[in-house]
Every structure is written in C-alpha cells, then in structure tokens.
Amino acid sequence: MADKKIVLHPANPWAILQDPSLMIEFLQDLGLIGPSFPHMGEPHYKPGPRFDELVRFSTGAGGLARPSAGCHVFLLETSSEPLFLGAGNVQPPLCPRCRAKFMNWSDHLLSWQKNKRQYLWTCGNCGNNATAQELNWRRMAGIARYAIDLWEIGEGEAEPSSELLQALAHKTGENWRYFYYRF
Ligand SMILES: [Zn+2]
Fold first, then answer.
1. 67 C-alpha vs ligand 1 centroid, how far in Å?
2. If you measure from the C-alpha of residue 130 to the centroid of ligand 1, how many angstroms do you get, rounded to a whole number?
3. Torsion angles phi and psi, residue 132, rounded to 5
4. What is the CATH number of domain 4-83+139-182?
5. How far is CA 100 from the centre of its chain?
6. What pTM was estimated for this model as a whole?
7. Parts of the chain belonging to CATH 3.30.310
8. Are 123 and 164 in contact, with CB atoms under 8 Å apart?
9. What is the distance in A from the centroid of ligand 1 to the CA of 92?
10. For the segment 93-146, what is each residue's pLDDT rounded down to a tens digit?
11. Can you tell me the distance from the alpha carbon of 66 to that of 73, in angstroms, rounded to the nearest whole number?
C-alpha cells in the first residue's frame, strides 16, 4: 500500500517550532487531533472532533459519513536545516515568472542541498533566478524544517480548510502551505 499524506508546512523554509508540546496542545484545542497512539514507533494522533471541518473532503471520498476515520496526524519536529519533503510523486517545478518546467530539477536539488541559504535556480527559458521555495512545486513538494502530516489522504481526496491554514498562521506568525505526498 502506498504511503500518502497532506503535508502542511510554513512557507518560510527556515521557520522553526519553538515548543512542539504547545503545538500539540494547540491542535488538540482546535479539534484537529485527538489522543495519541504509537505508529511505527512514533507518536501519531487520531483525528479530533473537528477534523472533518478543518480538512475538507471531496464528496467523492467514498460517501463515508466520516471520511477521516482512517486518518492520523504526525508532527514532524524541527530539523537542523530545511528539508526537501517531496517523494515519489514530485514533478518538475515551474519557474515562478514564466512557468517553464525545470526538467533538470533533480540536478538543481543536489546543488541546493549543498548551499541551501544561497542557491538560486536559474530558469533555462527566461533567466529568472529563484530560491527553491519560490518555485511552483504544484502541490507535490515543499521545503521546511517542520511540518504537520495528515496521513492517509491522497491528492484530490481532501484539502485543508482556510480556517486551518489561518489558525496555523495566527499561531506561528508564518504563512502556511500544503502539498500532497505520495511514496
Ligand atoms: Zn522562467
């Protein structure tokens, strides 16, 4: 079975989470998460009472009364530097100016790995220079030091509500983005 999830993360790739336990408390108060349980040796959280309002499932999601029943949430704590969080479904990102595809994106990514603060992606079509986070990853990848993973949700099945994104922005002082991860 393929691993799939929505990854929510701050748009600023250098943003850090000062206190993970406060974030967990916040997500519990919001109703996104419920009690924790061990999953593959890590603490995951069951969907909270408001999960199905904070994450909007498409009507095609099996017609279940509670489509989030099999979902679980994981808080990826702060890494020492920004990580590329995409996986098997990543497609070439687009130039933010002309929307040309970076077909050689994996070469760029290797260069970026070596110089995350300063590496610029130069568009082969228009010559624009962009940082990794300025590229349009088409909701298939993202770069961050911490993230909130909503497991067992695939592309087209659901999306985070604006309420959830705004609550996270208000809590952290950062804008938030999301993408669909599939391994
Ligand atoms: Zn371009």
1. 40
2. 9
3. -55, -40
4. 3.30.310
5. 23
6. 0.94
7. 4-83+139-182
8. no
9. 13
10. 999 999 999 999 999 999 999 999 999 999 999 999 999 999 999 999 999 999
11. 16
